[in-house]
Amino acid sequence: MKYECIIVGGGPAALAAALRLNKAGRQVVMVAKGNPASAAEPWLQSLKEQTQNIQTIPEEVVQATLGATEKKVATKSEQVLEASALILASGCFDRQGFIEGEEKFVGRGVFYNAYQDGPSLAGKTLIVEGKTEQALREVLYLSRHAGKIYFIVPAMRLEGDSRLTECLQKEPKIETLLSASLKKIEGNETPQTAVVLSAGAEKVIEADGVFLYARRSRPQYDYLRGTVEISEEGCVLVDETFMTSIPGVFACGDMIAGQPQLPFVSAAQGMVAAMSADRWLNLNE
Ligand SMILES: Cc1cc2nc3c(=O)[nH]c(=O)nc-3n(C[C@H](O)[C@H](O)[C@H](O)COP(=O)(O)OP(=O)(O)OC[C@H]3O[C@@H](n4cnc5c(N)ncnc54)[C@H](O)[C@@H]3O)c2cc1C
After folding, report:
1. Do 129 and 85 fall into the same domain?
2. What φ, ψ does residue 75 adopt, rounded to 5°?
3. Considering the entire predicted model, what is its pTM?
4. For a pocket test of ligand 1, which of 8, 35, 38 has the largest count of ligand atoms closer than 8 A to its C-beta?
5. Which partner for 180 in 142, 198, 202, 231 could form a disulfide, CB atoms 3.0-4.6 Å apart?
6. Is the CB of 102 inside a 6 Å radius of any atom of ligand 1?
């Protein structure tokens, strides 16, 4: 079966792209394995409802063959789909990366985005694990809300802007543990304690919430196998129309990384990528 556009993914980026192309009268199909990373926000539910009638194949894409005029994707069950345009929206949620206890508390004590979930944790004790500038920025943001923060850094020093490190040192609510790592999160309905390896010994820290930045994600594009250009940071490179290095192949959402990684940013990018794909189809079909 040949489509006008295939969309790989089922998260906010893919749904918004599918909706936009469907409204433009394009013959579109989504291929999506599993569930997206996003929390169940009302606008996302509404987006899902609006895309219910768009054909979706609940499968993993394992291979993509990308030519200038024809794009083919193969699924795990060896279905081969063909289209003139392709939108990649497979996110960067690596589900293999859970630490002990993480999966149990996702969305109710284990979070990945301070701007989204930090304000509801006023006065609470939090653990933040990460070593990147993003982790540093978000731990500083969280300190406006939290009562106390243990910042677990799985490295000898933090990455990124040294001025932010100075801000961190001045913030009395944050206790930074360098060369440390989070081993386990424990609790009943929500987290109560976490086991942290620091200075060669395991310690138990009481905490109401945990924010993870150290190992939560990597762009999900194994199926591309060196076809489109990838940045030094490992993200799919796109131009301002969200087109990749291959004409007619677009990418959007978390897999093109950049910051911030938020569902509505992905959805907006999906919408723009779909408009670009529509324009590209007009000119190239
Ligand atoms: C671990 C994690 C937790 C997060 N938690 C929150 C949160 O609690 N609140 C919040 O607001 N934001 C959260 N975010 C951020 C937010 O979820 C993302 O910014 C947003 O979901 C990205 O949308 P997306 O459409 O780009 O990708 P995703 O929502 O990740 O969707 C990608 C889709 O592609 C599918 N897919 C992947 N590979 C393939 C393949 N080979 N074949 C077919 N389908 C494939 C996936 O199954 C998924 O359906 C989280 C992000 C991560 C990584």
Report:
1. no
2. -100, 175
3. 0.82
4. 38
5. 198
6. no
